């Protein structure tokens, strides 16, 4: 049985008077790649923000090792949970190596000097994310795709057992999307737990071990893609008529829409 260290229990998530989720519970399988999918504004990003304590639940709790995440000191929590938000902002004129180096902050005692371990973590993260050739470039001069890979490198430099990423493939061309997802799968194979909000259901089916489908702030299905993804789920979650066939490369579910923009639904 897969162990669970990170879980949400009976969450009510809201922004001021707008309630996003009520009685939301889920377990994050340890050592797995979990993809969260669903239509726009269904609560995916809100859930991720709650898991990393950027949004405090109105009710319920998020537990890490059976302890409420609200009870952790900020640096202690950041040594366990690495988070890449959907729209990160870099300080003006900061350079790539400097930004990636900020991922080492949770590991540095107050007034400590930059260590050999810090240098090693940053260099390894830049190489892994494919941005070592950009080290001295100002971040604000990079393309959207380059910036996204730099942000991924910063999270990797944090060297946390958990990686939580909100739409990490945004701004990436299709080749870099697949390379990043393959990288996340490799990190999973090396023992990390990965949780990512993904827009592309076929990428989620191909790369994730565990799929969480959300609608209107609720989890409507979860499990292995082969067990939960079918035409009925796609119609319910995305309001999209489709057939689900085996991916010719991996055998995982592949969603093929049957909606023709010129003629309407086929069949």
Explain briefly what this protein structure is.
This protein has 267 residues and is α/β, with parallel strands linked by helices. It is built from nine helices and 14 strands.
Walkthrough of the structure:
The protein is 31% helix and 29% strand. With 267 residues, it is of the alpha/beta class. It has 2 domains: 4-80 and 160-265, P-loop containing nucleotide triphosphate hydrolases (Rossmann fold, 3-Layer(aba) Sandwich); 90-159, no CATH class. The strands form 4 sheets. A 6-stranded mixed beta sheet has the order 6-7-8-3-9-10, with helices on both faces. It has a 4-stranded antiparallel beta sheet with strand order 2-1-4-5, with helices on one face. It is globular, with a radius of gyration of 19 Å. 37% of the residues are buried. Residues 263-267 have low confidence and may be disordered.
In DSSP terms (H or I, runs of 4 or more residues), the helix count works out at: 9
Shape: globular
The H/E string reads EEEHEEHEHHHEHEHEEHHEEEE
Q: Report the span from N to C terminus.
A: 42 Å
Number of strands: 14
Catalogue the unreliable spans.
263-267
What is the topological layout?
Layout: E1 4-15, E2 18-29, E3 33-38, H1 44-51, E4 59-64, E5 67-68, H2 74-78, E6 81-84, H3 96-101, H4 116-129, H5 144-157, E7 162-166, H6 174-189, E8 193-197, H7 201-207, E9 210-215, E10 218-223, H8 225-228, H9 231-238, E11 242-246, E12 253-257, E13 259-260, E14 264-265
Parallel strand pairs: 3-8, 3-9, 6-7, 7-8
Antiparallel strand pairs: 1-2, 1-4, 4-5, 9-10, 11-12, 13-14
Helix pairs in contact: 4-5
Domain ABC transporter: 6-241
Organism: Nonomuraea endophytica
GO molecular function, one term: ATP hydrolysis activity
């Amino acid at each position: 049985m897969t162990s669970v260290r990170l879980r949400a229990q009976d969450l009510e998530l809201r922004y001021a008077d707008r309630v996003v989720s009520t009685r939301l519970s889920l377990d994050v399988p340890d050592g797995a790649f979990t993809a969260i999918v669903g239509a726009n504004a269904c609560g995916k990003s809100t859930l991720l923000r709650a898991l990393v304590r950027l949004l405090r639940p109105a009710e319920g709790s998020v537990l890490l090792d059976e302890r409420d995440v609200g009870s952790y000191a900020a640096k202690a929590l950041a040594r366990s949970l690495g988070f890449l938000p959907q729209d990160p902002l870099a300080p003006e004129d900061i350079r790539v190596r400097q930004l990636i180096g900020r991922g080492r902050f949770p590991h540095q005692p107050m007034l400590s000097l930059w260590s050999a371990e810090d240098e090693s973590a940053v260099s390894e993260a830049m190489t892994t994310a494919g941005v070592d050739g950009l080290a001295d470039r100002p971040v604000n001069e990079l393309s959207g795709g380059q910036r996204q890979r730099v942000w991924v490198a910063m999270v990797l430099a944090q060297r946390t057992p958990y990686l939580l990423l909100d739409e990490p493939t945004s701004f990436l061309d299709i080749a870099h999307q697949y390379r990043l997802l393959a990288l996340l799968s490799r990190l999973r194979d090396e023992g990390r737990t990965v949780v990512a909000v993904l827009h592309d259901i076929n990428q989620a089916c191909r790369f994730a071990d565990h799929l969480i489908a959300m609608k209107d702030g609720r989890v409507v299905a979860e499990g292995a893609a082969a067990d939960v993804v079918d035409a009925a789920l796609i119609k319910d979650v995305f309001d999209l008529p489709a057939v689900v066939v085996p991916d010719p490369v991996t055998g995982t579910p592949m969603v093929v829409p049957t909606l023709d923009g010129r003629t309407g639904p086929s069949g």
